[in-house]
Amino acid sequence: MTNSATGEDCGLRERKRTATRAAITAHARTLTAANGVNGFTVEQLCERVGISRRTFFNYFPAKEDAILGSPVDDLPEDLVRRFIEGGAGTAPGRLSDTLVADFVDLAVGMTERMAMSRSEMAQLKEAVTAEPRLISKAMHGSRETEQTFARIVADRESLPADDARVRAVVAVFGALIQRAGLRFFDPVNTDSYRSILVTEVNAAIEVFSLAAPLPAEPAESAPPFTDTAPADPADPAEDNE
To answer: The pTM is what?
Structure first.
């Protein structure tokens, strides 16, 4: 067998694995929206997907993990490619002017590409909010997710993945996305995910735009404060001592 054929087989297996993982998550979300987290079993989910229980646990450790999936799983290749291409032409060592806007588009696109209708999404929002385990998992990204987004930002900006600016982008956006998610998953919310996320991002822009770059170390330490006033050289009381 040639190296080319071996590579094609590996690529096919990986695509099938990715498709199976996506199918499990899509059906888990649909069942959760219709029946609640505790309204179906792993066996019923497996039957929907057409896989065995053993296969299910090769992909996810628990039903809750299958429902939420991973943000990495929800990264459509075309959206990622568009995001990375948006940084083309930026001067070396600088961040692209459209980084923030393009990151918003990427996050919104990921949400909109979830394999659910608007009514199913509304039902899922209620189910997630009612289940503390799910909301906790949903709002706390994994280290794997952070590393994936760091690589994507680094590729776009032609910077090392451990560059301080790349880490800052991922950390700040991660926090903003978590806040937007909490508001979006509120059962009484009627706003779109984009409008919520943009509000959070604009607030951060306003805060950070107030500050000039800070020095790594203070220029000079201020003298310690003391309550004792210095003696007046003209004080007659001191002259008489």
So the answer is: 0.64
**Helix 42-49 vs helix 3-35: angle between axes, to the nearest 10 degrees?**
130
Residue at token pair 């199976």: 20
Cα–chain center distance at 164: 17
CA distance 184 to 135: 12
Distance between start and end Cα atoms, the chain: 105
| 106-142 per-position pLDDT tens digit | 999 888 776 555 566 666 676 676 676 776 666 555 6
- DSSP, res 94: S
Residue among 20, 32, 24, 22 at smallest CA distance from 121: 32
- Report the alpha-carbon distance of residue 161 to residue 153 in Å, rounded: 8
Instruction: Give the contacts of 58 (CB within 8 A, at least 6 positions apart).
Output: none
